[in-house]
Amino acid sequence: MYGFKFCNRLTLSLLALLAPGCLPQVDPIPESDEAHQPPADQRPEAGPAENQDASPADATADAGPDSDGGPNPDGGPNPDGGPNPDGGPNTDGGPNPDGGPNPDGGPAQGGHLGDECVESLNNCQPGLTCDDEICKQLALTIGSSCDDSLRLCDLSSNYFCIEGTCKKLGELGDGCNDQLYICQDPLTCKDNKCQSIGELGDTCDKARSLICEDDLTCKDGRCKSEGALGEECDDLRLCEGELVCKDNRCKSLGGSGDDCDDDLWLCEERLICKNNQCIYIEGLGEECDDELRVCAGDLICDNHQCKQRLELNANCGVSDYSACPPNMQCAHSCVDCTETPTCLLLGGEITTRSEDCVSKSIYQVNGTTRCKHLSGGTCRSNDECSVYSQCYGDTCKITLSTDHHGYIPHCEKDSDCIAGVCAIGPMHSQKLCYLDYGEDASSYAEICNASPVSGCCLSGYTNSAGLCRSQFGGDCSLNPDVCFADCCVNGRCKRPLGTRGGICGDTSECKSGECQTYTTTPREGPYCLLNDGDQTTSSNYCASKTSHVEILTGQVCGSLLNH
Question: Of 10, 168, 275, 300, whose Cβ has the fewest other Cβ atoms within 10 Å?
């Protein structure tokens, strides 16, 4: 009935497989009424054996009233309605006229749970069903108490009796929890959904509830593992994070400046590992430096650009993509010439020709001919230092510079100079060694008196009698003596009145008066001159070049209108 006979047997088998030894304990079936019948030897005797199964319809022709009042031999009712004289029950199972029990021991109408029943009559109490001739409770819903014999779950809804409670067994993708909605074997309830947990290499698809074990990851539809640095790797064993699988091992790829080695710490494409650091390899014309961006092959890094390496005495400065090696300098091999510069050896390089040296001269050390050192080179005498430099202590340093054609050593810092400062001068675009203004230049008069004499002093100052002097308008706050004509006013050099030294460019250069031209006889002017009415001791200071006495204050400049 309802297909439950087979289903419950299947359920028992299924649960035995799922949880052997864990089937719920079933309450004992209540004893039937038959169990309470007295023993056979204590029951009333039946009528004659041949009449015990007789029914009223089977009465013989003489089944009338018994004349002697004895029992009817065929078991039929007495015509007088009295009980059988022997008190025995009716043998045909019909209703007993005296109200006694039926002799066949059948249950009364409306059997309880576990009672025997007749399926065709379904003679069980309401809420029960006669199944397999036993009154049972069928199709219990989820959460109901159950067992595997009398209280059965609704198998058509995938409800199964598990641990004494009807629970639903979910299929792949069904919702689940840890109480009533559980998953069919071998599915697992994860994230409230029945899912299939795959092992290494199994198919996976999160949308289809096919997931991987916790230590695996789903990639390209397969469950794969992820290895740490140095672990083995292949198509199923990937590398974690930014690691890459190379030579069947998980390795790191570093960028520019990252640490590297020849084993696990590799460098990204276009980078190489040099001195345990990832650096770029740049081609011709590409940007470079001395640390993280090096030039490929025979290229050299010159002025932050990869260039073709030139040989000794090769023309240089012609192409933007060629340069002299680090031990050479692109310079002229002659003085006051218009030839193309060539790659020449720096100080200390071995050579047999002075023409190969930037300093145009050579010296010998232990029989070996070398180029003279430029500034900064180690020396023992002046013979080892290039032109315009001297051996100061044990280092070649630059003397004060003058304006010469050809090579002039330039400085990078003040310590490169024997005296003065390393600065941009009035005649050059590179830093040269100059005297600071106000510094005594008399000891360097031979160089500083060369033409033009401004070579020994900073821009804006001129060598005069062995002293770098400031032009008018220059700073004299530190030393008033640096100004020509001794006119230092409020820290600035000013011009005097009406003398040749008073030639001015604007009034701000004048110690007093205004920068203007004489009105009578123009000269080299304009000069710093007084206006009409200003006091003076000389007509040369007046714009009108005239003066007269007024009041008692002395001479004043006359009116330009002569009144």
Answer: 275
Q: Which amino acid is at 292?
A: L
SS3 15: helix
Reduced to 3 states, what is the DSSP secondary structure of residue 334?
A: coil
Residue 270 to residue 561: CA distance in whole angstroms: 86
For 313-332, the pLDDT digits (tens) are: 898 877 778 889 988 988 87
- pLDDT tens digits for range 368-388: 999 999 888 889 888 898 877
Q: Which 3 state secondary structure label does DSSP give 251?
A: strand
Bigger pLDDT: 562 or 532?
532
Residue with tokens 């009295």: 82
Local structure of 540: helix, strand or coil: helix
Region for residue 257 given its phi and psi (left: phi exceeds 0; alpha: psi -120 to 50; beta: otherwise):
left
- Joined together, the tokens standing for residue 358 give 């930037």
Distance of alpha carbon 436 from alpha carbon 423, whole angstroms: 9
Asked if 485 and 509 touch (Cβ cutoff 8 Å), the reply is: no
Q: Which strand (E) or helix (H) includes residue 249?
A: strand 249-254
HSE, side-chain direction, 13 A CA sphere, residue 47: 23
Query: Does the model's pTM come out above 0.85?
Result: no
Sequence length of the chain is: 563
DSSP, residue by residue, 479-528: -GGGBGGG-EETTEE-B-SSSGGGB-SSGGGBSSSEEE--SSS--S--EE
CA–CA gap between residue 113 and residue 125 (Å, rounded): 8
Q: 374: which 2 tokens?
A: 């430029």
Handedness of CA 56, 62, 64, 67 (dihedral sign): negative
